[in-house]
Amino acid sequence: GKMSQVDKLVLRGLKFHGFHGVKEEEKKLGQKFVIDIDAFMDLRAAGKSDQLSDTISYTDLYKIAKAVVEGPSLNLLEAVAEEIAGRILGKYPQISSVRIHVGKPHVAVYGTLDYLGVEIHRNR
């Protein structure tokens, strides 16, 4: 079979203010969310042609993440990640799979931590 795709577009540390969460104050005040995206697709054509038309603009992937995180309130980080993954795969047939990491850097928990988050990997 076809070798699994190892080339990928990488977006790291996208930060947006969103209103996701189960708690009332999360839905009301919102908080910062940090998104990482890996979009797996063959980049050889773009590498050879040096043409943007042979790849996908980082801006387009950024806009999808922004629209979801700044969009309607969801309860779970899992749902935020799933929505981003679904929109990317739905819009760009050349992407074979995506890895989406959604983190909350400022979490109201007892104890010290950098952030909590989820990571999902979805194939077409």
Gyration radius over CA: 16 Å
Physical arrangement of strands within the biggest beta sheet:
1-2-3-4
Q: How many strand units? A: 4
* CATH architect. name: 2-Layer Sandwich
Helix content: 25-40%
State the domain count.
1
- Label the overall shape: elongated
Instruction: State the low-pLDDT regions, or none.
Output: none
CATH superfamily: GTP cyclohydrolase I, C-terminal domain/NADPH-dependent 7-cyano-7-deazaguanine reductase, N-terminal domain
Q: What is the average of the pLDDT values? A: 93
**What structural class do the secondary elements suggest?**
alpha+beta
Family: Belongs to the DHNA family.
Catalytic activity: 7,8-dihydroneopterin = 6-hydroxymethyl-7,8-dihydropterin + glycolaldehyde
Pfam family, one: FolB
Domain Dihydroneopterin aldolase/epimerase: 9-122
